[in-house]
Amino acid sequence: MEAQKKVHRGRVVRQLPGCDSGSANMSGKLEGNILVTGSNRGIGLELVKQLAETTGEGAHIFASCRAPEGPGAEALRNLSTQSPGKITLIKLDTSDEDSISAAVQTVKEQIGDGGLNLLINNAAITKPETPAPLSATEKKHMMEVYETNVAGPFLIAKMLLPLLQRAAEISPEDKGDKMSCRRSAIINISSIISSIEKCPENFNVAPLYAYRASKAALNMVTRCQSEDFKGHNILVTGVHPGWVKTDMGGQGGALTSTDSVRGILSTLSSLSNKDSGMLLDWEGNKIPW
Questions:
Q1: Rounded distance, CA 58 to CA 284, Å?
Q2: φ, ψ for residue 63 (rounded to 5)?
Q3: Quick check: bond before 128 cis, omega within 30?
Q4: Is residue 249 part of a domain?
Q5: Of 48, 195, 232, 243, which cross-links 11 as Cys (Cβ 3.0–4.6 Å)?
Q6: In which element (H, E) is residue 64 found?
Q7: pLDDT, position 100
Q8: DSSP, res 172
Q9: Nearest to 38 by CA among 11, 62, 13, 12
Q10: Is the pLDDT assigned to residue 247 strictly greater than 70?
Q11: CATH of residue 191
């Protein structure tokens, strides 16, 4: 089925004629202190890799995952070794409030009087295993996915708010815009299948009740925080990374994690006031709620 080539594990790619996600020029490098969750594999790992390669000497990346010392984080540890002094590994389980609190405290201690310029909430899970029809989906799946995909990003942003405020206070406006990812921003990695309007287009090939509902809820958190934090000049935007070849997205994806992240970082570098509270794809195209 043609539709099956476009949807898998909660991520749907929307290819535009003549458009190469890797061809966009970044309008400015991302800088400052950056925290990425779920960074031990897939999109999160590639975000850390490309951020380490493209940011300046003054940038610092806090790469978090559940078990930074475990076997599943070997690639992340290798990245840290290759970029000495630029990447700090942080233990953070987004489903555990105590773990979030401890991670935030570690970041605060390392940043000191500085602020957090960019938070990328990337960590997410999907349950049960795809194709995850209604018959296989239980209450526990709904609750576990919500806890990680919605409550986790909500708490992380809430606890890091003082550091994000500090960054907004000490960073200059970006070309006249009060909001930018170089100043102070929260990026919530969402999905096109979170779109209620687009559900009829892709539901049959990706039922994913728990994942869809959680990402739709994350979109509302994004929208609410964009309103709540705009007085502090903190940008809050949701981003769909495309259908990516990862452990979570499967190997049938139309995008490599390299191309997806290249597009994401290009889009992030150009976000401004008008993009806060929006849901965009990796190329910066608006997705309807």
A1: 27
A2: -100, 115
A3: yes
A4: yes
A5: 243
A6: strand 60-65
A7: 98
A8: P
A9: 62
A10: no
A11: 3.40.50.720
